[in-house]
Amino acid sequence: MKGDAEMKVIVDLCVVPIGVGVSVSKYVAECQKVLQEAGLSHQLHAYGTNIEGDWDDVFAAIKRCHERVHAIGAPRITTTIKVGTRTDRDQSMQDKIDSVNELRSS
Prior knowledge:
Elements: E1 8-18, H1 25-37, E2 41-45, E3 48-54, H2 55-71, E4 76-84, H3 93-105
Antiparallel strand pairs: 1-3, 1-4, 2-3
């Protein structure tokens, strides 16, 4: 990393509230609101959410997701996080998707 540059990160986040029954959509929606409020680029998928941004901003938002999900009634949360960083070049979530789709199309 050069100087004081921010470390960019792409995260795959799966927040699972426990003790709330089988439907968790309202908790996922609340976490999506947190990410929107934080101004982070994110994409919901069937079993989680991809998020990209500055390391500190992303992890602060993940903490707020936990705080909000607890606040609306989840007594317990288990979270799975996959984290990717790179220093050789900038790469967005969409760049990664486009790269695979280009190879698939050829």
